[in-house]
Amino acid sequence: MNSVVYFNGPVQNGDFTFAERPGKAAGIRIAEALNALLGLVPVPHLWNTVTLAGDVRHRCAADRDTVGRQQREQEALLAKYAPGPMPTGGLRTDADHQVAGLALDMTRNLLADGTLTVRDLPVRLCTRCGYMAGGGAAGDCRSCGHGGGRVTRRPLLVFDRTAYGPVLGRDDVHAAGARTPSHLFTIAHHAPQLLVLSRTRDHGVDLSPLGLEGMVLDPRAGLHVAVLAAAGAFGAVRPVMTVTENAAAHVAAYGAPFRRHGPVRLRYALHGKIPYEAAASAQLYEVHRAQEVQDLFTDWYLPLCAARERAGISAARIPALLKLLRRAHLARPATPPGDLLADLRHCAAAGDMRWVTGARALACALSDREDTRGPMGPTRGAP
Question: 259-276 b/e with 16+ CB inside 10 Å = b?
Answer without folding.
Answer: bebeebbbbbbbbbbbbb
